[in-house]
Amino acid sequence: MECLPHKKTIGIWMSDKKSQKLNWKEFIKSCASHGYNLVRLDLDIPLEEQRPINVFLHKLTDVIAAADHGDSKASVIINRVEQYLSNHPNITVIDPLDNVRILLNRYCYYTILQNEPSLYKQGIFTPSFAEFTTNNIEMNIEIMRQRGVKFPVICKPTIAHGSKSAHDMIVIFNEKGLHVCKPPCVVQNFVNHNAVLHKVFLIGDRYHICERPSLKNFYASEDLEPIYYSTGEVCKADSQSTLSILDPHDKADITLTLNEDKIKTIIRILRKRIGLLLAGFDVVIDNMTGSHAVIDINVYPSYDNFPNFFEHLLDSIQEAENRNVNIYNNGDCNGVYGEEFLGHKINGLINVGMDPIKYGVTGMNIN
User: Fold this and answer.
1) Closest among 355, 300, 339 to 21, alpha carbons compared
2) Binding site for ATP: residue ranges?
3) Where does Mg(2+) 2 bind (predicted)?
4) CA 23 → CA 31, 43, 263, distances in Å?
């Protein structure tokens, strides 16, 4: 990538797999129009030996997860990055590593949501959950009882990033099915939602909502065996999974309507409690109550179909950088985003899917 003079520099790192999917041509073009050079960082060599940067944009989730679980190479990389950022507090980080760590652990972020009373007051909840740290089924049944978790449940790995298995789930219908759980894992009440998932993608104060297929309705049963599935297969836009086909007696007579005010409430809570510029979350609507359940949160999601993705990203980076300059100059640089930093208008959330401006490049990936 050619570096142009008199421009600020965004240093970017993501895995080779992610990098191959990125529409680099459009990204470089958008960076230039916003006054930035774009350089790819090599984390195998000291960052001090590479081009100085103003912004550090990364997708380090898998590396952070590996380092936190004892991988020596990953630990060297993360230590190197953290030391570099500590030495250069004026660099704007998208997103701070400590904030990212919160979303690497499902039990951690479910607990944050569960402890937020303002959600429940507005008909928003996270389904009851429990963490298994042992293979002792009797002990796990008691943990479920104490936590109010009832069948059917979804069993998910506690670690939300770092391996393919992080997205492998199991629907369990009864106590005898609990033997398939591999701790550490989280079991969570399954909410019947008529096989419709709402994915919300965030860039600062901008958001976009996509509807995706999801699991059909399930009920507790002593006869059913556990069902294994991958969210990447069942919930992708063009999925043809039979697990998404409602049973005849479950045909919905009414449409479950997403309440956008509730989506905005969730966004504000996530900004306040977790503090990420780039994130996403999944919502399902309880087909009995209409309440909105937050069932997952993601760091730097795929942003498939996000209108004018690069433009919105760079606008948000500029806002973040301006805010970081003010923090740095005032001597209050602690790496944690305040609400006013995460959006230039705290109550001015923007649904980019409603934007009258004609869509440009959609998403961040090569079409």
Assistant:
1) 300
2) 106, 156, 188-199, 214
3) 296, 298
4) 12, 21, 29
Residue 55 pLDDT greater than 80, yes or no = yes
pLDDT of residue 324: 77
Q: Say whether pLDDT at 344 is over 50.
A: no
Q: What is the pLDDT of residue 81?
A: 97
Q: At what angle do helices 24-33 and 309-329 cross, to 10 degrees?
A: 50
Residue 340 has pLDDT above 50, yes or no: no
Residue 319 lies in a domain: yes
- What lies within 8 Å, CB to CB, of 49 at 6+ separation is none
Cα atoms in the Cβ-side hemisphere of radius 13 Å centred on 144: 24
- Cα angle 267-271-272, degrees, rounded to a multiple of 5: 115
Residue 40 falls within a domain, yes or no? yes
Mean pLDDT, rounded, for 119-145: 97
**265 domain residue, yes or no:** no
pLDDT of residue 205: 92
Q: Binding site for Mg(2+), residues?
A: 282, 296, 298
State percent of the chain over pLDDT 70.
Answer: 88
CA 314 – CA 336 distance, rounded (Å): 20
pLDDT band of residue 305 (cuts 50, 70, 90) is confident
Judge whether residue 163 has pLDDT over 70: yes
Task: List the domain range (segments joined by +) for residue 92.
Answer: 8-96+308-334
Q: Would you list which residues are annotated within the binding site?
A: 18, 59, 106, 156, 167, 188-199, 214, 282, 296, 298, 302
More confident: 360 or 29: 29
Length of the chain, in residues: 367
- Would you say residue 138 lies in a domain? no
Tell me the C-alpha distance between 252 and 141, whole Å: 33
d(CA 177, CA 152): 10
Chain centroid to Cα 192, Å, comes to 22
Q: What is the identity of the amino acid at 93?
A: V
Q: Which residues are annotated as a binding site for 1D-myo-inositol 1,3,4-trisphosphate?
A: 18, 59, 167, 199, 298, 302
Q: Is the pLDDT of residue 67 over 90?
A: yes
